[in-house]
Structure formats: structure tokens, C-alpha cells
Give the backbone structure.
Amino acid sequence: MSRIIVIANQKGGVAKTTTAHCVSIGLTHKKYKTLAVDLDPQGSLSYIMGADSGKPGVSELLREEILAPAAVQNVEQGAIITGNSYLSSISRELTGKDANKRLSEVLTPYRAVYDFIVIDTPPTLGLLSINALVAADDVIIPVTADALSLQGLSQLYSTIRVVKQRSNHTLNIAGLLLCRYDGRTVLARELRQIIADRAEQMGTRLFSTTIRDGVALKEAQANKANPFKSLFKSKPASDYLDFIEEYLRTHNV
């Protein structure tokens, strides 16, 4: 059975989609069979992976309009179930007491096929994000070293606690991942300690690996290219591979 990793944070600008992208294709780079799932109506992950959002994807899968094999696109960067703007209306269509379990149900066939399933979530804590948390084994929360990044963590943590109590008892906060980090300033280092303290209050940890900012990664994504094919050009891509090693090591995977 695969392990489902959800990348979540309703705060914008914290490299959520970049983290989902790099964790997904980084695991593929390390020879794990990995499936990316774009649960964000903006479809950014689908775009930077070079997938066709016009083809059936997670929206049609949730609506039971297609069978599991038809939802996966195998592109140069890996396997993905795409997201698009049609996901915006899914909350009105998924009804009933088990509406928050729909994603978990439709992902079941893939769990026997892939080592990891990596889900990029919307920047809101609505039904789609709840579905992702219900399906998840681990949650990775990307943050940045600024005061605004800490906003919303309490709400996200409360949501995770409710989901764990009511729907997914084994849900685990794998940790907070510090992204776009420049440790050369005193303020950034102070905020890193504050974030580490907040992680401890949440019963989790701040990962030791930090992700630097870099132009090469942004260029690769803009060109729908695999950043791990040019590691010597990209500090953040190298950092993400180090992070994946830390995640695998600390979670005995």
C-alpha cells in the first residue's frame, strides 16, 4: 500500500505547489513509483508538470464520470491526476455524511500501484482540503520565515485535529518545512526558532532541511521542465532532494 502525502497550507506564497511538485518528482527521481494529484482548482501543479488539464482528471474521478486508469496522465515528469477550475463547484455536488471521504475512496485503486501519492491542496480549508486530510497518511506544511506565514497555522492545526478525531485516526503531521529561506539575516534565524517552537506546540517538528530560493527552479517550472535534470544549477532542487531523504529517514519509509 502506498503512503499518501498531503501538502497543505491555506496561506499563499509559502511554496505549497512548488513543494508538492518537487516532492512528487523528487520521489520519482529516487525511483519510487509516485502519483501526483492536483486538488487545486487553479491547476498550477498540472501546468508545471506539463499535463493537459483539458483531459479528465480528479474532478471527473470525484464525480464518478471515469474509471481510475483513465484519470492518470503519464507525462515526462511523472504520473499525475490533473486538477482544473471544475473543482470549484465540487463542494456543491458532493453531499451526504460521507462527502469528506470521497477522495479517499477514489484513490483506493491507486494505493496498490504506487509507492507514494502526493496531493497538492487548495489555498482554503474547504471540502476539498478536508477530503485530502481524510485520505492522508502524512501532512507536510510548508512555511516561510516571515511573521505572516504564521497566520493561519492555528486554524490549519485545529482542522487537522478535528479530522484526526472524527475521520482519520492515523493522520500524522509529518512536520513543517521552511521554504524560501535565507538564513543570513538575524530576523530570519529568529523566526526559524519561533516556527520550531510552534511546530513543537502542534506536536510535530520543523524539518532540519530548509529550502533556499532560486531562479533555476522557477525557470524550470515556467518551462514545464524537470528541475532535477539540472541539479548543479538549482540550490532549491538539491535542497528538496535532501528534504526527501530526511522525510524518508525520519518516517522509516
User: Anything to note?
Assistant: The first helix runs from residue 16 to 29.
